[in-house]
Amino acid sequence: MSCLFCYLSDLLIPFLISEEEILKYLKGKEDEFIKSYSDELIRNSPYFKYAEVNAEKAEAEAKKEELLHYPETEVFISYMQRRRKPFLLDSGPLNVSVMDNPEFSGDLWSAGITLRIPVWSLGKSADLNRANLLKVQRMQLEKRKQTHLLETELKTSIQTWMGNKQRVENFQSSLLPTLSRSITTSTSAYTKGDISLADTYQFLNESIEMKATFHEVNLNRWLSLLKMLEITNSILPEEDSYEK
User: Fold this and answer.
1) At the top level of its lineage, which domain of life is listed (predicted)?
2) The whole model's pTM is what?
């Protein structure tokens, strides 16, 4: 059993993604999103495309149903060539003989127009058209609602991402360096006997809480970015250029 576990572990190690690779990928997507951001990115969302396809499908079905109420007209023309029959076989009740048939039957030409009128659907066309119109309006309303929802979610995610990004930068540029210097000063002061051990422990506990807050803020930053990429369908490259 242990050998099997070791074998599977060795087999999966090349496919594992490290934390550094994930952060590098997210940072690249973050920079790419900042450069390419526009309101049109919402149209790349699968949710928007689904609503758009439903609206177009409803419009096409309504046009098709409307055409079914009209009469169907068919124009036809045909030609049939007859063969000469100089003799006919007379199979009367008394004898069987070949009789002369000098009469010639000419070729046949035919033409005509067929008109089919859908009486039932013609009488119900107003009700059917009204039902189709309501369906189209419902799908268009659903499309507008989905667009508004995506716009709201995207703006909220962008605001959350920007706030967390600024907080992370503030941590990295000011709070964490100040914390590091304070830890060094506190350790030196404890060594000299200027502060007690309890004060040193309390300071270390506060520093751990600050680092935990920093990691939480940074996590929320990446989660907001992933939500933005999900809405705009930008998590993976297009045109199957990523490895499957």
Assistant:
1) Bacteria
2) 0.60
